[in-house]
Write the C-alpha cells for this entry.
Amino acid sequence: MRNKPVVSVFLAFALFGKGGEVSAAPVIAVDLDTNVLGIQATRTIDPGDQFSVDIVYTGDGDAVFDTFALDVVFNDVGMVLSLTSENPIAGPIADTAPTLALNLFSASPVVSGDALAIDNFLVPLGYDDGLGGIGISSVGGTPFPLVGDGETIGLFRLSLSAASQGTSTVASTGFPFGANAELALAGAPVPVTLQRATMTVVPLPPALWLFATGLLTLLRAKRRNC
C-alpha cells in the first residue's frame, strides 16, 4: 500500500468532476467483467475471487492522442480489493500505433498482451490503494488512429482479487492527478471524461454455503465407493 498525499478538495473535483455530469469529451471507463460484452460498471463477487479489469477508451469521433498515462485506484471504504502478482498488460491500443508503441515507463516497444512497467503515481485523496502509473506512447508523436464516436478500444488490463466483504469504487486517474492530463497530444492535454465502477464483495449466504459443502461431501463419498 502506498502513502496518500494531502490533496485539496479542488483536486478531487478536477479528477472526477461533479457526479452525474455529462461531457462531450471521449471517455475512459473501467470494465469490471472482461467476459461479458460491453462495459460492466458494477459487479458482485465472492471473497477470494480473482478477476480482470479492463481500462477502455470510447471515442467521440474527434479527439486524437499520442500518449496516455493512467493509474487505477480502489479501496475508498476499507480494504476490499487487492492487487495480484500478475503484471498489467497492454491492450489492443498498442497494436494500432502507426509506427511503434512504447511502454511509457520503460521506453521499450510494446504490443497487445505485453507486460507493462509501473511508475510510482501517488494515490489521490479518498483512496487507500492504487496500481501505479501505466502508460503507452506512439513513437514519434504520431497519434493513435482516430477512434470513432461510440467505438471502444482497450488501453490495458490488470488483475485484482476480492480481499474482504464490502464495496469499493474502482477508478482510473491521470497524472498529475487528473486535470485532463490522462491523454496527451504533442505534450498538450486532451480532455477526457473519467467514469468509475463499483465492485461489491459478498460472501455466500450460510444456507448456500452449507448446501455446497454437503454436495461436495456427497460427491467425494460416491467416488470412494466406485
Observations:
- Residues 1-23 have pLDDT under 50 and may be disordered.
- The domain at 9-225 is CATH 2.60.40.680 (Immunoglobulin-like).
